[in-house]
Design brief:
150 residues; Arc Repressor Mutant, subunit A; alpha+beta; 2 domains
Length: 150
């Protein structure tokens, strides 16, 4: 990956709706050269996917919460099972297996507390492998960035 690739990727992370002609002009390439680079970045997996980033509050999911989970059993199959269950939940936007006192960290984007209550029943109360969980509700967001600046 060279300087031009990094510049293209940074531009895309700011606004992925830019046209190929606009991107080519910004980095000093012909549109055909720019398109080839973009295709290479996609094919190689550097660009994982291109998505629209929604405003959670305006999309009806204005409550954000972080949940740390401690499992009773720590084998790979137990971890994989819980991660799979959590990943299927619509309100769960991020699922991480982590080191430290907790085994899993979840980021939730919720419609309301009723949705949270139902999710807690499915993921934590009804699961025999959850020892305990702790919830932190986000009251203010200072930074929430999706870009990886290169």
């Amino acid at each position: 990956m060279d300087r031009i690739d990094r510049k293209l990727l940074n531009l895309l992370q700011q606004d992925a709706s830019r046209t190929n002609v606009d991107l080519a002009d910004e980095v000093g390439l012909s549109p055909s050269s720019c398109l080839r680079r973009m295709q290479r970045l996609k094919t190689s997996g550097v660009i994982d996917r291109i998505v629209a980033i929604l405003n959670p509050a305006k999309a009806g999911r204005g409550i954000k919460a972080l949940v740390t989970v401690e499992l009773k059993l720590h084998g790979e199959q137990h971890m994989r099972h819980f991660l799979g269950l959590a990943a299927q939940e619509d309100a769960v936007s991020h699922v991480y297996a982590v080191t430290g006192a907790s085994d899993v960290v979840l980021m939730l984007k919720l419609r309301d507390m009723d949705e949270f209550d139902a999710l807690c029943s499915r993921l934590f109360t009804d699961q025999k492998n959850v020892a305990r969980f702790f919830t932190m509700v986000v009251i203010r967001t200072a930074k929430e960035e999706t870009a990886l600046w290169l």
